[in-house]
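Researcher: Please generate the 3D structure of the following complex. Treat every line as part of one assembly.
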Amino acid sequence: MTTRPLTRYDRSMLRLMNDRRSRPLYATAARRRLAVAAHVLLTAATGGLMTYSFLAEGQPVWALVVIAALLLPWMIATGAINAATRGLLELRERALDERQSAERARVRARAHQAMTLLLAATAASLLTAGAVDGHAPTAYAAPVLIAVLVVHWLMPLWVAGLTAQDEPEEA
Amino acid sequence: MSEQVHNRLAVIRAERKVSRQRLAEAVGAHYQTIGYIERGQYNPSLDLALRIAKFFELPVEALFSLEPFRPLTDEIYGRKTS
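Model: Done. Output below.
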């Protein structure tokens, strides 16, 4: 941890992120992978429903109800991943020690690499769709841009959840 | 670079009856970091290694080494390594 003193907010976040009560949710690599998979699915489902309700005529109420219902499990999955990483991406730099700071930099670098590949694939898909149907790139540009933005925001969390290691047992 | 640094931290910590949490708080690290150092999954910086050595009032080379440590009993009772 850095020499900068922790604020009350830092200390409360540190306590929250190191609360071991949620350990059953992320104790093993399989459970962490499950939490990340659930988070990806819930994000995709919520994003898909938001796009549908935006594009559909007459704003379907059922879609908004389902989105609201999906938010709770999405938040639980987010909390489980954050707890598994001990707040690697949520805590301020001053609340992390040297290993955690290095781990955060590694996670961000991996997420950046994954996003570069995803953006390349997205651009190639849009260009291919444009070659087949000239209107496709402009028609799909907005939803694709929003989807990529969401993935860009969440990719570090998913990478951190997948690369988190098991808790060292107390000898 | 992934140079393996060997350490005797788990043995010394158990001998002194110090929990990971207490050691971590004393040296300004996370308790998991102490566990990863003990498991050889993380090599501490010189700064952290020196703080850990200071906590135990031992020279840093008593805790960390580039060569594998001999068992403490061998060192105490002088058994030759084969």
